[in-house]
Amino acid sequence: MMNPVIKALNFRHACKLFDPDKKISKEHMDMIVTAAHLSPTSFGLEAWKFLVISSDVVKKTLRPACWNQPQITDASHVIVILSNPSLADPSKEYIRLNSERRGLPEDAVKVYIEKYKNHMETQVFPRMSAYAWCSKQCYIGLANIMTTAASEGIDSCPIEGFEKELVEKALNIDTNQYEVAVVVALGYRTKEQPERRRHPMESVVEYI
Ligand SMILES: Cc1cc2nc3c(=O)[nH]c(=O)nc-3n(C[C@H](O)[C@H](O)[C@H](O)COP(=O)(O)O)c2cc1C
Fold first, then answer.
1. Is any ligand 1 atom within 6 A of the Cβ of residue 13?
2. Is residue 196 part of a domain?
3. Whether residue 160 has its Cβ less than 6 Å from ligand 1
4. Minimum CA distance residue for ligand 1 atom 15
């Protein structure tokens, strides 16, 4: 028997042509956003937001900012995943509040914050911006959205083909807080998925 997650992963492909007349039910969308919500983040920061778009008017406004890709307007729903880099600043009150919210005992909070600060300052910020780091977490949400959708026979297309500033402008995003990380279109395919082309397993997996 095939593992149900592998089955979903086999079903998933980057869908280019969505049926514009087929809409995802509320029940399925609830399932998909639950998968996003349950996704893990480094240090449990949850520095993100999932903007779920079903309005045709909004999708039409968004499309030119996304290389004019037809998936944006043909898909039933588009989720714009926003990163919230302002929350990652180690000096911000949020780091303490978030540790407390997650039930860490008082003496552990102090140690945790120090550990976080050190990690960000020595490992993360020398290599990437807070935006890039928070966006990495957003991609975990993206993966879970796509796999959960696929497990219910719903297609998706991850979309990085966009102009960030134009997307933020089209959606009136307050960029002091949020920045667009990645976009995903969701709906139903009109054609069978093409043959999967992957590098051979041995060339990308090594057991040591
Ligand atoms: C982060 C990310 C961004 C992508 N952006 C686009 C995009 O803007 N437009 C598009 O048609 N496909 C996009 N793709 C789809 C990839 O081209 C596709 O996943 C890859 O070719 C493998 O094909 P498969 O997903 O059908 O297995 C993106 C994929 C990822 C993971």
1. yes
2. no
3. yes
4. 14
CATH code where residue 177 lies: 3.40.109.10
Q: For 38-156, where are the alpha helices, taking DSSP H only? A: 56-62, 70-74, 93-101, 106-119, 130-151
Domain total in the chain: 1
What is the pLDDT averaged over residues 6-30? 98
Cα–Cα dist 83/81, whole Å: 7
State the closest ligand 1 atom to the C-alpha of 162, by its place in the atom list counted from 1.
8
Extract the runs of DSSP E, i.e. beta strands, from the chain.
48-53, 77-83, 155-159, 179-187
Helix (H, G, I), strand (E, B) or coil at 8: helix
Q: Is residue 145 part of a domain?
A: yes
Residue 198 located in a structural domain? no
Query: Distance (Å, rounded) from C-alpha 162 to C-alpha 67?
Result: 6
Give tens-digit pLDDT for 158-181.
999 999 999 999 999 999 999 999
Q: Is the pLDDT of residue 106 over 90?
A: no
Q: Is 14 in the pocket of ligand 1 (CB under 6 A)?
A: yes
